[in-house]
Design goal:
Oligomer: single chain
Structural class: alpha+beta
Order of helices and strands: EEHEEHE
Number of domains: 1
Strand content: 25-35%
Radius of gyration: 14 Å
Number of helices: 2
Mean pLDDT: 89
Strand order of the largest sheet: 4-3-1-2-5
Low-confidence stretches: none
Length: 103
């Protein structure tokens, strides 16, 4: 049996304005259907494998770092626009809804 997801940290940096967005999510505090949806998106993104490395020629790209923790073991996903796998893009979109600017 797979360990349950215990924490998700999302950090988005870059872009034209250089705004940093952050979300720290404890799935146990979410509605059960929301927690299940988040876990499914995480599993799909992890199963895709890492995205290709970002294109160094792209300026002002959005960069994403997602750290998911299960059973005390963190796993990190990193990507940068425009090279984001489909499942990772879906996870990023979900996490952006909960992200807030870091001041």
């Amino acid at each position: 049996m797979t360990e349950r997801l215990t924490h998700v940290r999302f950090v988005q940096t870059g872009g034209f304005g250089g705004l940093k967005l952050v979300a720290d999510i404890d799935p146990s505090t979410l509605d059960p259907s929301e927690a299940a949806s988040l876990e499914r998106l995480v599993d799909e993104a992890l199963s895709e494998g890492p995205p290709p490395p970002p294109d160094a020629a792209v300026r002002d790209d959005q960069q994403y770092e997602i750290t998911v923790t299960r059973g005390g073991k963190p796993e990190r996903l990193q990507a940068a626009d425009p090279i984001v796998t489909p499942a990772l893009a879906a996870l990023i979109a979900k996490l952006q809804q909960r992200a807030e600017p870091l001041r």
